[in-house]
Each structure stands twice: as structure tokens, then as C-alpha cells.
Specification:
The strands form two sheets. A four-stranded mixed β-sheet has the order 4-1-7-8, with no helix packed on it. The N terminus is likely disordered. The protein contains one helix and eight strands. The chain is 20% helix and 36% strand. By secondary structure, it is α+β, with helices and mostly antiparallel strands. The protein has two domains: 30 residues; 85 residues, Sandwich (Immunoglobulin-like). Keywords: Signal.
């Protein structure tokens, strides 16, 4: 076999391996990361196929920003009080209608993460414990 044919095969093989490695790395990387939130912060990661938000009823209905699917956002400045407060997790369907995705408790001193999953018809959320 001529040297140029061998070099082309090696180049194609390395390119194929490189593409496979790159594809595997992309598949292994989550769309949004739910790393732990710091004290006084709540991190919302919207992993379902709908936008989501977290409401703090004891704070006059204060809510986080609405976070689009596949994104995370950390709300800071929530204080460092070492007690639990209720939180409500909501999603929005394609028409903009709000629906419940879950509820839980948040301790500002500990910080916390909320992760939403599913679809508007089958929504759920992991909340801080």
C-alpha cells in the first residue's frame, strides 16, 4: 500500500476516535450543574422541559427569576438565619400558565439547591432537606 493511503487511514482513524471522545465528553456533561449553593443562596436548576421558579411565601411571595430549561441560576442575599422556611416550586407551560412542581423547606444559613424535572403534565422537584 502506498504511504499516502496509510497516512489517510491513520488520519481518518484518529479523527474518528477524536470525534467519539468529544461526543462521549458532551454526553457525560450535564446541561446544567447543581453544585451546592452557599449560605444565603438558593440555586435553581431547571432540568425539566419547562421554565421554573421558586417562591418564598414568608417573604411576601418573593420569587427567583424564571429559569429556562437546561439552565441554572443562583439567587443570593437570602440571609443567614438558621431556621427553615417554606418554599413553593412552580413551572410554566407553553401557554405561560403556572403549575405546581413541588414544595419544601429552605434554611438560609445552609443554602440549598432546587432541581426541577419532567414535563408540565408530570412535573416534580428536588428541594433542600
Amino acid at each position: 500500500m502506498p504511504l499516502t493511503t496509510n497516512l489517510k487511514r491513520v488520519a481518518l482513524s484518529s479523527g474518528t476516535v477524536g470525534a467519539a471522545v468529544a461526543a462521549a465528553a458532551l454526553l457525560a456533561t450535564p446541561a446544567a450543574s447543581a453544585a451546592p449553593a452557599a449560605s444565603g443562596a438558593l440555586k435553581l436548576c431547571s432540568q425539566g422541559n419547562y421554565p421554573s421558579t421558586v417562591e418564598f411565601p414568608a417573604r411576601g411571595g418573593f420569587s427567583t427569576f424564571v429559569i429556562n430549561p437546561g439552565q441554572c441560576h443562583t439567587t443570593t442575599g437570602l440571609g443567614d438565619r438558621d431556621s427553615y422556611e417554606d418554599i413553593n416550586v412552580y413551572g410554566f407551560d407553553g401557554a405561560g400558565n403556572r403549575f405546581g412542581a413541588g414544595s419544601g423547606h429552605f434554611n438560609p444559613h445552609r443554602g440549598g439547591n432546587v432541581i426541577t424535572y419532567g414535563t408540565p403534565g408530570n412535573a416534580w422537584a428536588l428541594t433542600p432537606s
